[in-house]
Amino acid sequence: MASTLKQIRDQIIIDAAISGNPLFPTLRLNKMINLAQRYVQTNLNGLGMKKWETSDTLTLTATVDGFAGHDVQISDLSTDCPNMLESPNSIIFIQTVDDANAYGIAYEIDIRSFQEQLDNTYLSPTLSKPVFMRLANKIFIAPYTVDQAIAYYYKAVTDLSSDSATTEIPIEFEDFVIKKTVLDINEILGKLQDKELAQRQLEKDIQQSYEKFLGKQQELNRVKANDKAKLQ
């Protein structure tokens, strides 16, 4: 059963030995816990966890000379994907289609590559091989003849705002939310000599736990497959 905000906070108070410490009122601890949730989620996403994958239809605006003198489609991330998790690979890909039902899958490229592809006739994006980049909280998609688009991305884990709210971090990884918060508290208190080293170790521990988690899931799937085969 998923832990509540209060349960997580109480455990942190014990582990960090900060009961009654005025430096860490409830509101501050809640904020630190929510930041720790995002940290753990980002690490799990990087390892391949698909729990927070979602999609949203983008509202496209065909913009003449929208980027470096080139016509592009532009979407506002703040309204189209308001719950996106900010990480290096937030958007997995964007599915595009034009008014003639020509579909394509767009992957993110950097600004320099985006400009080079638009400038070069031989590299120019096509409906079957569109591209996109992110800039100023917007998505720029080429070619401009794209008519509709659906973004597949990682949504951010929901912040815990009430004591009874339960975390969306899988129970197997809840302890890392606590450990990350305690690590941050110890840094504030001057108890941590090398935060980078401690954080690298925490990330290594998350990875090892994820690998064990995958092993258990694979074994469970194998057992289910064997049971199904016996019934046939």
Please summarize what this structure is.
The chain is an alpha+beta fold and 232 residues long.
Could you explain how this protein is built, in words?
By secondary structure, the chain is α+β, with helices and mostly antiparallel strands. It has 2 domains: 106 residues, no CATH class; 102 residues, no CATH class. 43% of the residues lie in helices and 21% in strands. It contains 6 helices and 8 strands, in the order ααβββαββαβββαα. The chain has an 8-stranded mixed sheet with strand order 1-8-4-5-6-7-3-2. Helix 1 packs across helix 5 and helix 2 crosses helix 5. The longest helix is centred in the C-terminal third of the chain and has 37 residues. The chain is elongated, with a radius of gyration of 22 Å.
Structural class by SSE content: alpha+beta
Task: Kindly report how far apart the N and C termini lie.
Answer: 34 Å
The number of distinct helices, counting runs of at least 4 residues, comes to 6
Envelope shape: elongated
Strand order in space, largest sheet: 1-8-4-5-6-7-3-2
Rg to the nearest angstrom? 22 Å
Low-pLDDT windows of residues:
none
Instruction: Describe the sheet with the most strands.
Output: 8 strands, mixed
Strand content: 15-25%
The sequence of SSEs as H and E is HHEEEHEEHEEEHH
Domain count, please report it: 2
Overall pLDDT: 93
